[in-house]
């Protein structure tokens, strides 16, 4: 390994120099009739410097809020991307089936090509020829289901890459087949898992990412090119902000087993992996991805040996 490689790897794990700002856009009650209004509330992190930027859409986990991912999204955007996180559903008396989230996720994607640009700063242009779809936890169902064609999306917007952040299969509409490389996908996929996700917080609660339905199975069913990263000493919610707001934020910290280290290290690790993957498959620069695969110990949080299957 060259002496320059560790510095190269480290750079994606830290905030870069692209300035950004956060935008909250509420859905309009008249969004069914007003095509300019988003169909669901959006949390957007965008560069403020003029330029053309790839877009990443992140679907939140079960019952979580889109702004709980603020620091993770800021990390990604600082490296020259536009991030959009829709609020698809809020938990009430009962949790709607995953099919509802998939349909709403598709509506957001169909709205993006024309609806996002007017919300961005002047001279900041969204490049939808480079579009990444991602999801955390239950949000993986939305992301993977849409990528697999389970909902009708605009022909004008094609998904370039798919990212699963500690994905977990649901009890209903489970997209897993338990057969190797069975996902009918022709795009690069990366799966980021957690070492503590399969462990219970306490004996009275099931694990948040149980074996047989977590990141291992999702990667097992992906076709090349695909990559699998596992952050060994962190849990299912540790990529969220340190103190998510409100009752939902408080509950999110109690449901899953958490790592003992600072969440900042987890966010840097996940953010760096996402940036490296996006640079490789959206911007044609695989130096960062190759460096992390070759030296997992360069990560802020400890990684298991990385599995990377090229096309």
Looking across the biggest beta sheet, what order are the strands in?
1-2-4-3-5-6-7-8-9
State Rg: 18 Å
The CATH superfamily is: Alpha/Beta hydrolase fold, catalytic domain
Cα distance spanning the termini? 24 Å
Number of helices: 8
**Strand portion, in percent?**
15-25%
Core attributes:
311 residues; alpha/beta; Rossmann fold; nine-stranded mixed β-sheet; 8 helices; 28% helix
Structure description:
The protein is built from eight helices and nine strands. It is 28% helix and 19% strand. It is of the alpha/beta class and 311 residues long. The model has no long low-confidence stretch (mean pLDDT 90). It has one domain: Rossmann fold (3-Layer(aba) Sandwich), CATH 3.40.50.
Secondary-structure blueprint:
Blueprint: H1 5-12, E1 20-25, E2 42-47, E3 51-59, H2 70-77, E4 82-86, H3 98-115, E5 124-136, H4 139-147, E6 161-165, E7 189-194, H5 215-220, E8 226-231, H6 246-255, H7 263-282, H8 287-294, E9 307-309
Parallel strand pairs: 3-4, 3-5, 5-6, 6-7, 7-8
Antiparallel strand pairs: 1-2, 2-4, 8-9
Helix pairs in contact: 1-8, 2-7, 3-4, 7-8
Could you provide a short overview of the structure?
With 311 residues, the chain is an alpha/beta fold.
């Amino acid at each position: 390994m060259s002496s320059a490689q560790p510095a190269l790897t480290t750079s994606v794990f830290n905030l870069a120099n692209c300035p950004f700002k956060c935008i909250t856009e509420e859905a309009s009650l008249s969004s069914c009739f007003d095509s300019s209004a988003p169909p669901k509330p959006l949390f957007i992190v965008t560069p403020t410097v003029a330029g053309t930027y790839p877009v990443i859409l992140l679907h939140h986990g079960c019952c979580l809020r889109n702004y709980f991912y603020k620091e993770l999204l800021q990390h990604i955007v600082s490296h020259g991307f536009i991030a959009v996180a829709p609020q698809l559903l809020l938990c009430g008396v009962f949790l709607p089936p995953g099919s509802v989230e998939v349909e709403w996720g598709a509506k957001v994607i169909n709205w993006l090509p024309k609806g996002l640009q007017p919300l961005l700063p002047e001279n900041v242009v969204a490049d939808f020829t480079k579009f990444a779809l991602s999801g955390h936890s239950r949000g993986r169902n939305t992301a993977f289901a849409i990528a697999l064609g389970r909902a009708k999306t605009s022909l004008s917007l094609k998904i370039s890459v798919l990212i699963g952040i500690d994905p977990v299969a649901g009890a209903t509409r489970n997209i897993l087949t338990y057969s190797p490389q069975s996902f009918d996908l022709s795009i690069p996929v990366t799966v980021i898992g957690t070492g503590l996700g399969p462990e219970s917080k306490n004996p009275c609660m099931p694990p948040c990412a149980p074996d047989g339905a977590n990141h291992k199975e999702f990667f097992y069913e992906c076709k090349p090119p695909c990559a699998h990263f596992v952050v060994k000493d962190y849990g299912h919610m540790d990529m969220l902000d340190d103190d998510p707001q409100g009752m939902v934020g408080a509950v999110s910290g109690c449901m899953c087993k958490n790592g003992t280290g600072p969440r900042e290290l987890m966010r840097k690790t996940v953010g760096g992996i996402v940036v490296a993957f996006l640079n490789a498959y959206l911007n044609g620069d695989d130096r960062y991805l190759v460096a992390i695969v070759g030296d997992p110990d360069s990560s802020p949080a400890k990684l298991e040996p990385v599995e990377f299957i090229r096309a």
